[in-house]
Design goal:
Structural class: alpha/beta
Order of helices and strands: HHHEEHEHHEHEEHEHEHEHEEH
Radius of gyration: 23 Å
Shape: flat
CATH class of the largest domain: Alpha Beta
Strand content: 15-25%
Number of domains: 3
Oligomer: single chain
CATH topology of the largest domain: D-Maltodextrin-Binding Protein, domain 2
Distance between the termini: 38 Å
């Protein structure tokens, strides 16, 4: 099946928002017959009836409303991709310099930057991506104005503010023995098992280490150290071993049963995601606006 194009998804979303094909077509600057043809093509591609067309106008079917909701999320992800890519391109000479750890850079920061750009379109934003330790070093060294980290810290010399929460989850492939467990793992079992892990300095790695320490268990036993969440995820899918990873990074794989989450007793794998900046410095201008947006819009 040929996948739907973004313009058709955007058209469907506008029909949902505006209540008619004609108004949606006008918003996109295309003729109504062209819009109707695009929607018919989309319906054929998906094998679903998306729009009820009557003499009184057009409205989305129940299936159409569901697809439009999913399309909203797809288009938001694409907007985030474009915003993030632009920020990565304009690191040097940017008016607002930002650094973010991997999870935040992938799931949150592009949307926050995009909102800054919408309210202040002339603001150039540069983004650097690294692990939490690297981000903190960039902030402390004055090379960026504001950083976002996922490690629990502490962060000497830096002021911090909570912007979101996240939860790590133990995952295994469907064929792994843990996928069939009826009782949760214990902290000792998790600590005794070699895991696919992120590199030292990663917020995910530090969170797991801290959680096991609080549970009175030993340190993580690395089976394989990798430099990104996607590499960890793919290694687990390939059968390398279990991993502890942000649930944000395995939503699709868990839904598709490529990965199975495993419950753990006595280990708190929740974490707070934070903004960091030099202690004693008052944020102003775009940096202050970005922090305000992050605090307001960050989940949790």
């Amino acid at each position: 099946m040929t996948g739907p194009d973004l313009d058709s998804l955007r058209l469907l979303v506008l029909v949902d928002d505006l209540g008619s094909i004609g108004q949606a077509a006008a918003a996109l600057g295309i003729a109504q017959p062209s819009a109707s043809k695009r929607l018919s093509t989309l319906e054929r591609q998906l094998g679903l009836s998306l729009v009820d067309r009557t003499r009184r106008g057009s409205a989305l079917t129940p299936d159409g409303r569901v697809i439009a909701g999913w399309a909203h999320r797809v288009l938001a992800e694409v907007d985030g991709l474009r915003t993030g890519a632009e920020a990565l391109r304009t690191q040097r000479g940017a008016r607002l310099r930002v650094a973010a750890s991997m999870t935040l850079a992938e799931h949150f920061v592009p949307a926050w930057i995009g909102e800054v750009k919408r309210t202040e379109p002339d603001t150039d934003v540069g983004l650097e991506v690294g692990n939490s330790e690297q981000v903190a070093a960039l902030v402390a060294g004055g090379r960026v104005d504001l950083g976002f980290v996922e490690s629990p810290g502490p962060w000497p010399g830096l002021a911090t503010r909570r912007v979101a929460v996240d939860r790590l989850v133990v995952v295994v492939p469907a064929g792994h023995a843990w996928a069939r467990r009826r009782r949760p793992l214990t902290a000792a079992e998790l600590a005794a098992t070699p895991l696919v892990v992120r590199e030292p300095g990663s917020g995910t790695r530090e969170t797991v280490e801290a959680a096991l320490r609080r549970a009175g268990a030993g340190p993580v036993k690395p089976l394989l150290e990798l430099g990104s969440a996607s590499a960890v995820r793919n290694a687990v899918i390939a059968g390398a071993g279990p991993a502890v990873i942000s649930d944000l990074d395995v939503v699709r794989e868990v839904a598709g049963r490529r990965l199975v989450p495993v419950a753990v007793d006595g280990v708190d794998l929740g974490r707070v995601l934070r903004a960091v900046w030099p202690a004693g410095r008052r944020l102003a201008g775009p940096a202050a606006e970005l922090l305000t947006l992050a605090v307001k819009s960050g989940p949790g």
